[in-house]
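Researcher: I've been going back and forth with a colleague about how TetR/AcrR family transcriptional regulator might be arranged in three dimensions. Neither of us has a model we trust, so I'd like an independent prediction. The organism is Gordonia liuliyuniae, in case that matters for your notes. Sequence below.
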Amino acid sequence: MTSHPDRSSWAQGARRSAARDRILAIAGDVFAQHGADASMSEIAAAVGCSRATLYRHFDSRTALQLAYVEQIAFTIGAAVTNRTAHLTAPDDRLTEAILFALTEVRADPALSAWFSPAGAGLASELALSSSAIETLANRFVGDYGAAGVTAARWIVRVIVSLLVVPAGPDERETIERFVTPAVLASFA
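Model: Here is an independent structure prediction for TetR/AcrR family transcriptional regulator. You can compare it with whatever you and your colleague have in mind.
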């Protein structure tokens, strides 16, 4: 029996995708335990593979970290969208989107380790360089072209800042009073 080239390519792609997903899931556990600076050796050991195998899937530690952050960002983005879909007022939707995103990141042990003082620099760099995170933040404000992209970048910076240095019990008020009006005014 001969194998069909499309089938073997598909199967190989599916196995590669499943391996990447498994690596990212286990990397999350390692990040929760060792922080954002976990080494490729630590991750490879936890996955049960060699560093060479890990590097076949991710050409650098930064690539693995960015893939992890983007995977989680899509999950959180979907949760934010579902959580705020019923809100019709733009100010309510934006405020709740930011607050819920903060809550979700803080609830994830791996991500909360990233936004500790020790990991904040790397986490900030990855979050601010991710086009996927920017795209998700753009959903918070809607389709406003270049102004929306600029606002989305600012929202990501605000979220990162609040993750690193929480505003405490006044966080909602801070967002409602300073962040939401500034973002929405930029579209007027």
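Researcher: What would you highlight for our discussion?
Model: I'd start with this: The two ends are 66 Å apart (CA to CA). After that, consider the following. Residues 7-11 have pLDDT under 50 and may be disordered.
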